[in-house]
Amino acid sequence: xxxLEKEIQxxxxxxxxxxxxxxxxxPYCYTASKLAEMFxxxxxxxxxxxxxxxxxxxxxxxxxxxYSPHFVILDKDSDLDYVYKDMQCYLPFVIKSPExxxxxxxxxxxxxxxxxxxxxxxxxxxxxxxxxxxxxxDGPQYLVETIVYKKExxxxxxxxxxxxFQKRFIITGYNLLLNSSKxxxxxxxxxxxxxxxxxxxxxxxxHLEMRYVHDKWKLIEINPRISGSGMNKxxxxxxxxxxxxxxLKMALGQEPNLTTKYKKHLxxxxxxxxxxxxxxxxxxxxxxxxxxxxxxxYIKPRKGALLRPPLSMGDRYAYIIAxxxxxxxxxxxxxxxxxxxxFHLTDTMP
Length: 350
What we know:
Elements: H1 2-13, H2 29-38, H3 46-53, H4 55-61, E1 71-74, H5 80-87, E2 93-96, E3 106-109, H6 112-125, E4 131-135, E5 141-149, E6 152-165, E7 169-176, H7 182-199, E8 204-213, E9 216-223, H8 231-239, H9 243-251, E10 265-271, E11 277-283, H10 285-289, E12 294-299, E13 306-307, E14 318-324, H11 327-338, E15 342-346
Antiparallel strand pairs: 1-4, 2-3, 2-4, 5-6, 5-8, 6-7, 7-10, 8-9, 10-14, 11-13, 11-15, 12-14
């Protein structure tokens, strides 16, 4: 922080007028907001961002509400037998590092042996950081993108997420919901507003991952930024709103324009690989682009990159965004185009 502070001050000393300091990446949202606060140009709710960014603080904020699963915090000195006994009635449960993102450090636990091995793995990776053990929430999962401006909460988009579980929980599909029942939407929106208010966010952007479990909404996690993986493109294609642009306006002290210009059914398909290897080439992108309803085809890795079956969200190597005249058609368009993409791998560096 001291180095960043010095660098920013040097820009001021050179006569450069800095109007905003912003990050859209984990784990720098809080850092950016804190720096903006130091220089008197902050528009965002720094304390809320701090609590959202850390999973332990997030759980503690909601501990006395119905939105939080049962959880226990442990460290390298905790009595594992005691913690396991506390969590045993929730089997299977999950353990996670509170500062990680993208599901790479979320481990599903089925028995005591897996629990000990998982705790050891996380302690070795993050020796100074506590671990969270929490109830596994089994139910449909949704992503909710929001903007908060002067305490006014706007829900921009709701996506049903396709979750694939191999060794980790990976989101492989995003289905935009346009025709949900009023009862469903009202219940979800009430829960989202209650959660955001509990964090005390007055201005800023955040997205929530929610699961519907036994007729109740539960928070998987909340992050103080727009979601990645093409989310800005999805929202722009579906509603004509550039959420990054509107967030930057707020950072500059301007009111965001969240007017929906149109509504289109949309689906985003993420692409992973089933084996490990070095990338020789990718084929099918041109074919995919020519498929019906395609908005974007994005390929992430370059030739020579080492690809693997997914252990985190970072192991999703392409996405295809498609629209359609209906929810089913948008999904079909995206999945068909995704089937055209082929990653050609080899065992040795090409």
